[in-house]
C-alpha cells in the first residue's frame, strides 16, 4: 500500500529543536526515541493534531484499524510476538471507551501496551463537552497506570514514563490522555534519560539465600514439578532458555498455563502439556501428586487450581513472581520469591551447579514411571470420523503442516477452539502463541493476528477461530486487505457458541439458551467481499488440500471448516473439583449438576 | 465496602469456584501510605479497595510534604493476615505509591482522631455535657443559648466513648476526621 504521506517530505526545519516543538510533534519524537515503528489507531477530532504530525513523517507506520478495540488487540499481538511495547492511538470519548476492552485484556494478561487517547481541550474538561469521557476515571482500574497530561512541558517526560512502566516489572497497559490544546501547545522536549523515578521501582533481582533454600528443597524432592506461566514469556526468550536448560539438567517434568505455552518446547521429553481445566491428565495428576512445586511466572488462576482446598495438597510450594501481590493471592505458598524469572533462573542454575546437586535417580525413576502411566491414558484421544470433521482432527491436520516451520504465529479467539488449539498445536518457542487468557475476550484473535503479521511480515500467522467469536471483530478483514496482510483465519465452525453449549449440556440440563449461531454469514463469500480468499471444507478428506491452499495463499484467507457441531472439549476439570477428579469424556454422571 | 469478602464464604457453598479460603480471624490494621500528591491518586487507592472487596474503616489523607509533593494516606482496614498482606502488596505496586507501612505490625504507634460534636440542650443536660467534656478534655468551639459544639481529640476509642456519653445529652451531629497515625519513638516511616 502506498501511503499518501510518503509522497510528502517531512519538513526538516531546525526549529524542531528545543523550545518550538508542539505537543503533537513532541509525542511523535518521544515515540521514535522509544523505538516505536508501528502504531495501531483510528483518528477523530481530539487527535487531529497528532494525526497531522504523523502525516509529516515517515519513520512511524500507522496501521488504520476498523474499530478501536482492534487497535488494542493488534498492539497486544504486536507486543506479545516481539517483546516490545505495542502502541495504540485513539480519539476521545467513543474512541477511548471502545479501547477499554482491549486495555482490560492487556491488563489481565500482563501485555505491555501504551494507548494514547485524545481528550477534549483541557479548558473544556468537566463540561460534558462533545465527545468528552472521563478517560482516566474509566481506565483507572483497567490499566497499570494512566496519565492526563495538562502541561505540554510534561508531555515528553510522561510518554517516556508510560513506556517504562508498561514494559518493566509486571508489564501492562498504560494510558496517556492528551487534551487537544496540549497537542497544539509548544514546549521543550525531555529525553528518556532525564526522567527520574521517585516511587516506581520493580523488584528484579532474586534473593540469593531464598534461591539457595529453594534449590536445596528441589534437590531433595522425590516428585518435583515445574509449573510455569506467562511470566516466563514476559521475562523474555532468555528465561525460556534457562527454564529449558534447568528442566533438562534436572529432568524435572514441566507443565505450563495457557499463557506460558511455548516457553518450554512441546517436543521435549519433560513436557507434560498444559495444566488446568482443559489441561492434560498427566499434567494435572502430576500437579496433584507432586511433593515440590516450582511455580515460575504463573498466578494460580482459578482455571488452573480448580478447588483451591484440594489443590496439590501435599506439596511444598515455591513461587517465583515479579509481582509480590501474585504470591499468596489465591494459594498459600511455602516459599515466595519476588523476582524476575530470568534473574531467578540464572541464580537457580548457579546454586544447582555450585552444590553439584542431583535429584535421587531412584526417586525420579519412580516419579517418571508414574507419569508414564498417566500419559498412557492418552487423554487427548478422540473418536475420529470419516463422515464429519472432528475439530481435533482438523487441528492435527494443521499441525502436520506446521511442525517443521518455525515462523508460525498462532492467535485464537475464545471458546472450545481456543482450548483445542492449546491442546493440539505445536508450541516450541516463546512469543509464537497469542491468546486472551485472563479476560477471555472473543474477538481478540483476528486483530492480534494482524498485529503479529505487521511485526512479522514473512511469518505464517493463523487465527484459530470459532464462528461466533470471529464475528466480534470481523471488520478487521478490511484492515488486512488494506495492508496486504496474508493472515489466515481457520474457523472451526460448529454452528454453536461451543463452549457455552458445552456448559449448558453438562451443567444446565441441556437447555441450550441462546447459544446457537443462527443466521451465519457465508464466510467464503465474506472473504471474497473483503477481497481475500475463502475456502470451505466439510469433508475430512478435503482438509489437507484446503490447508495447503491456505498456507500457499498470499492474501488474507478464511477457511470455514465445518466441524462436528456437538463435539465437547475434554479432558475437563469440572469447576470446583480437584485436579485428580478430572474427567476424560462426556459422561454426564460425572458432573455435579447442582454446581452452577 | 466489605461485601465481597464477607460474602465469599456464603457464596462458596454452591459456587463452582469451590470453598472460600479458610476464615482466619479478621483484625483491623492501620496502614500508612505515602503517595504522590497528584490528581487521581486517592481515587486509585480507594478504587483498589472497593474493586477488590477490601473494606475501609477509616481514611484520612492530606499533603504532608509540600516540597516533595507527597501526601500521607492513613487507612484502617480489617482483614485476615493474608488479606492484609494482599492489600499491602496491591498498594505497593501502584505507580504513585512510595511506601506502605503496616503500623499495626510495625509496633507501638500513636493514633489520633479529631471529632466535632454538636449537642442541643439546656439546663441540667447542658451542665452535664460541659462536665463530661471536661473529663474528656474536649473544647467548646461554638455555643449558642441552646447548643454546644465540642472538639474532641484522641484515640478513636476515646472519641467513641465521648460520643456515647453525649448521646443522652442531646447529641445532634458528629463530624470525624478519621485517624492520623505515626510510630512512636525516633522511628520514621
Ligand atoms: C475458555 C478459557 C479456558 C481456560 N482454561 C485454561 C486452562 O485449562 N488452563 C490454563 O492454564 N489456563 C486456562 N485459561 C487461562 C486462564 O484464565 C489464565 O489466563 C491463565 O491460566 C493465567 O496464566 P498464568 O498463570 O501464566 O498468568 P499470566 O496471566 O500470564 O500472568 C503472569 C504471571 O507472571 C508474573 N510475571 C510477569 N512478568 C514476570 C517476570 N518477568 N518474571 C517473573 N514473573 C513475571 C506476573 O506477575 C503474573 O503473576 C483459560 C481461559 C479461557 C478464556
Ligand atoms: C466478549 C465475550 N462475550 C462473551 C463471552 C462468553 N463466551 C465464552 S466462549 C463463548 C462461545 C464462543 O463461541 P465460538 O467463537 O463459536 O467458539 P467455540 O466455543 O464454538 O469454539 C462465549 C459466548 C466471551 N468470552 N467474550
Biggest sheet: strand arrangement of chain A: 3-2-4-5-7-6
Residue share in β-strands of chain B? 35-45%
CATH topology value of the largest domain in chain B: Alpha-Beta Plaits
Helix content of chain B: 25-40%
Strand-pairing-aware structural class of chain A: alpha/beta
Q: Taking all residues together, what is the mean pLDDT of chain B?
A: 88
The shape of chain B is elongated
Q: H/E order of the elements of chain B?
A: HEHEEHEHEHEEHE
Q: Could you name the CATH class of the largest domain in chain B?
A: Alpha Beta
| Uncertain stretches of chain A | 1-17
Number of domains of chain A: 3
Number of domains of chain B: 2
| Largest sheet descriptor of chain A | 6 strands, parallel
Q: How far apart lie the N and C ends of chain A?
A: 51 Å
CATH class of the largest domain in chain A equals: Alpha Beta
